[in-house]
């Protein structure tokens, strides 16, 4: 089944990255998707303030920044008393794609993880999936974020639920 391309022109997106060239590249990609309301911040603390001020539909956040990295941003965001702010969808970006980094980002409540260098096709797919899925949020112990995909039943061709891969050496699927 092929989905009709989604009109992303009404989305507002906040880009948080300490590299001005990356912010420019991401802005160009987003503009190419028809997105016109794009806000920028050059580190996590300013990104958090921009999230509160602009209340974007989606945030693209770099993992490695100084001061205020992606982990700091996610911790502050998910702890915000205003649920509209706390439940803002976040797509985390990083050139560091080690399993430990991805798992930490997931534990902090991201919606998606995208490896740098960023491919426009993958960026579009992550944006579209974030909007289409509109996953509900859950609080489980210290976790507050979107319901993990692994806990959502996935129908298989034969009608049986597909189980996510397990084991320490397996790739991380989000």
TrEMBL record:
<keyword id="KW-0804">Transcription</keyword>
<feature type="domain" description="Response regulatory">
    <location>
        <begin position="12"/>
        <end position="131"/>
    </location>
</feature>
<dbReference type="GO" id="GO:0000160">
    <property type="term" value="P:phosphorelay signal transduction system"/>
</dbReference>
<dbReference type="InterPro" id="IPR011006">
    <property type="entry name" value="CheY-like_superfamily"/>
</dbReference>
<dbReference type="Pfam" id="PF00072">
    <property type="entry name" value="Response_reg"/>
</dbReference>
<keyword id="KW-0597">Phosphoprotein</keyword>
<dbReference type="InterPro" id="IPR050595">
    <property type="entry name" value="Bact_response_regulator"/>
</dbReference>
<feature type="modified residue" description="4-aspartylphosphate">
    <location>
        <position position="62"/>
    </location>
</feature>
<feature type="region of interest" description="Disordered">
    <location>
        <begin position="153"/>
        <end position="174"/>
    </location>
</feature>
<keyword id="KW-0805">Transcription regulation</keyword>
<dbReference type="InterPro" id="IPR001789">
    <property type="entry name" value="Sig_transdc_resp-reg_receiver"/>
</dbReference>
<protein>
    <submittedName>
        <fullName>Response regulator</fullName>
    </submittedName>
</protein>
């Amino acid at each position: 089944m092929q989905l009709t391309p989604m009109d992303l022109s009404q989305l507002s997106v906040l880009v948080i990255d300490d590299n001005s060239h990356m912010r420019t590249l991401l802005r160009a990609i987003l503009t190419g998707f028809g997105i016109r309301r794009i806000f920028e911040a050059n580190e996590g603390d300013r990104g958090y303030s921009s999230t509160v001020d602009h209340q974007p539909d989606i945030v693209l956040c770099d993992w490695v920044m100084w001061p205020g990295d992606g982990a700091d941003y996610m911790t502050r965001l998910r702890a915000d008393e205003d649920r509209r702010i706390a439940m803002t969808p976040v797509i985390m970006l990083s050139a560091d794609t080690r399993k430990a980094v991805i798992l930490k980002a997931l534990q902090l409540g991201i919606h998606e993880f995208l490896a740098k260098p960023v491919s426009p096709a993958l960026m579009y797919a992550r944006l579209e999936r974030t909007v289409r899925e509109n996953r509900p949020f859950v609080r489980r112990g210290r976790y507050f974020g979107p319901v993990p995909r692994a806990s959502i039943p996935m129908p298989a061709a034969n009608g049986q639920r597909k189980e996510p891969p397990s084991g320490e050496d397996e790739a991380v699927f989000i």
